[in-house]
Amino acid sequence: METSEILKRVRQIEIKTRGLSNNIFAGEYHSAFKGRGMTFSEVREYQFGDDVRAIDWNVTARFHRPFVKIFEEEREMTVMLLVDVSGSREFGTADKTKKNIITEISAVLAFSAIQNNDKIGMIMFSDKIEKFIPPQKGKKHILHLIRELVGYEPQSRKTDISAALKYFTNAVKKRCTAFVVSDFMDDGFYDDLVISNRKHDVVAIQVYDNREAELPSVGLIKMHDAENGREMLIDSSSKKIRELYRKQWEERQGRLADIFAKSAVDNVSVSTADDYVRKLIALFKMRT
Q1: What distances in angstroms separate CA 30 from CA 73, 220, 240, one per listed residue?
Q2: Closest CA to 146 of 122, 177, 115
Q3: Model confidence over 117-128: pLDDT tens digits?
Q4: Residue 218 class from Cβ within 10 Å (0-12 exposed, 13-18 middle, 19+ buried)?
Q5: Residues 6+ apart with CB under 8 A from 204
Q6: Phi first, then psi: what are they for 116, rounded to 5°?
Q7: How many helices, marked H, and strands, marked E, lie in the chain?
């Protein structure tokens, strides 16, 4: 993609996703993703009903009457986007590829984060760590993230979610909220997901295309695996093949749901044909 096309696409995504963040997500995001804890604000005189454990004994001794510490929720967080940039993200129709939806969802989350005064960083991964962008604040930083999502050409087309989670757990020391945005066409990442979610607050966002779930009856189809390059011809007019195809998808989704349930990771699945705004709001409300 040429530089002019990248900049045009970045501008389109900025206009769309910043508007969505400002008008829709602000309150939901703020409620769904809590700060790191409580921070000291001030002291005031003890009032009937106050928790005696909050008494500030130093101030109390100085003024010879009881004072209590007042705390406020510490809102500022660090948010990390773990974004799958493997070959399978290119699947979909011309304007509704998984890559486009992954980019828009990531941009919405980024704008929501800075609107909430959070820092945001990004790890782009295939079967290796393609790029690590440390957390920062500000619109300029967000536009840098979007430019990378739009224009970055990964070195590998394969996927290793486990490697991405390992890197994230080791690289980010302070507890943060992490969104793993992927089609999750991978296996063997359960243990690392559990470890990451113990240290951080991990949220999984699966992006898929309906044709991965349901094969249309259109005769012979050449199937191409974007990650390993293999091709095969299948007869989509065969009801048996279409049922087998759907069954394999349902089994994969069942395994994925089981992984998220056992690891206690909040998650949502978004089709390229879905209204991802509605799906994300439902996810946010589930957390409040």
Answers
A1: 12, 49, 48
A2: 122
A3: 889 999 999 999
A4: exposed
A5: 179, 180, 182, 184, 260, 265, 266, 267, 268
A6: -95, 10
A7: 10, 10
Q: What would the two tokens of residue 232 be? A: 């095969």
The answer to whether residue 228 scores a pLDDT higher than 80 is no
Q: What is the mean pLDDT of the segment spanning 210-214?
A: 88
In this structure, are residues 147 and 186 in contact, taking their beta carbons and an 8 Å threshold? no
Mean pLDDT estimate for the chain: 87
Cβ count near 185 (within 10 Å): 22
Residue 207's nearest CA partner among 118, 126, 88, 121 is 88
Judge whether 92 and 2 are in contact, CB under 8 Å.
no
Distances (CA, A) of 173 to 97, 137, 200: 34, 18, 9
